[in-house]
Write a structure and sequence with these properties.
This protein has six helices and 15 strands. By secondary structure, it is of the alpha/beta class. The protein is globular and about 50 Å long.
C-alpha cells in the first residue's frame, strides 16, 4: 500500500475535525432550542406596561396600548386584562383597533365604566379579591395602590387591579401600578413576576427590590419603569436582588424600543 501523502492527510484531518465541529454545533444549537422552548409560558414585551403572555392554548394581552400595529405578529387574544384607568393601561383606541370577537376583557369597575358600550358585552368586572376561572386558567384580582402620602392621588386602594394568573402550573404576578404594599410582599409561590418601578407614580427601585426579596418569585421582570425623569435604573434593581438572593432570576427585557 502506498503511503498517504502529507497534503492528503491534512485534508482528511481537516474534514474529520469539521464534521465533529458540525456535530458539536448541531447538538449545541439543539440544546439551546430545547431550552428556549422548554417553558410553556412565553412572554412578549410590547411597551412600558403592555405585554402578551402566550401558551399553547391561550394568548393574554395585558394593558394593550400602542394601537393595532403594536401587536403585529401576535396571536389574537383569548383574554384582555386591564389594570387601571390611566392611558398607559387603558387605551380605548387600541381596544377598538383589535379583533376582540369572542374575547373576554377583565378589568376593575373604574375601567369597565370607561370602555365604550360597543365592547361591553365582552367585559367581566372583577374587584380586588375576586377571581375568574375557565378551562386552563385562573385569574385573581388583587390590590394595587400607593402608600406614600404624596402619591396617594395617583392610585387609590380598590380602584385598580393587580393580577395573579395560574396557567400551565405556573403562578404569574402582574403588579400594575403599585408600591411595595403588604399584599405584594405576602405573595406566595410566584413563578413569574412583573414588577413596576417608576417615580413619582409607583415606587423606587429600592422599594421594588425589597418587595421582591420578601415574596421570592422564581423569576422577576422589571417593567413599567419609565417615570418623569426617564427610565429607572433596572441594572441597580438586578444587582440589589442578586446581592441578597441569587436564586431569584432577574430578566431584563426590551420594553422601550427606539
Amino acid at each position: 500500500m502506498k503511503p498517504i501523502k502529507p497534503i492528503l492527510l491534512l485534508v482528511i484531518l481537516v474534514f474529520t475535525l469539521g464534521c465533529k465541529n458540525d456535530e458539536s454545533n448541531t447538538n449545541e444549537n439543539k440544546a439551546i432550542a430545547e431550552n428556549i422552548t422548554a417553558d410553556p409560558v412565553l412572554i412578549h414585551p410590547i411597551q412600558h406596561g403592555t405585554l402578551v403572555i402566550e401558551t399553547k392554548d391561550l394568548t393574554i394581552y395585558v394593558d394593550p396600548t400602542g394601537g393595532k400595529k403594536a401587536f403585529n405578529g401576535q396571536k389574537k387574544p383569548t383574554y384582555v386584562l386591564i389594570t387601571d384607568i390611566h392611558g398607559d393601561h387603558l387605551s380605548n383606541s387600541t381596544l377598538e383597533s383589535l379583533d376582540l370577537t369572542n374575547v373576554i376583557i377583565i378589568s376593575p369597575k373604574a375601567v369597565t365604566d370607561k370602555i365604550p358600550t360597543t365592547l361591553s358585552k365582552t367585559i367581566m368586572t372583577l374587584k380586588n379579591g375576586q377571581s375568574y376561572s375557565d378551562d386552563g386558567i385562573l385569574i385573581e384580582a388583587i390590590p394595587m395602590y400607593n402608600l406614600r402620602e404624596e402619591a396617594l392621588k395617583f392610585h387609590e386602594k380598590g380602584r385598580g387591579n393587580g393580577y395573579i394568573l395560574t396557567i400551565e402550573d405556573q403562578r404569574i404576578y402582574i403588579s400594575g401600578d403599585t408600591e411595595d404594599i403588604p399584599e405584594m410582599r405576602n405573595l406566595k409561590n410566584i413563578d413569574k413576576a412583573f414588577v413596576c418601578m417608576n417615580l413619582p407614580y409607583t415606587m423606587t427601585v429600592e422599594s421594588a427590590a425589597g418587595a421582591v426579596l420578601d415574596f421570592k418569585p422564581k423569576t422577576v421582570y422589571p417593567y413599567h419603569y419609565r417615570g418623569t425623569n426617564g427610565l429607572s435604573d433596572i441594572a441597580k434593581f438586578k444587582s440589589l436582588i442578586e446581592a441578597k438572593n441569587d436564586e431569584i432570576e432577574v430578566k431584563l427585557l426590551n420594553w422601550y424600543k427606539k
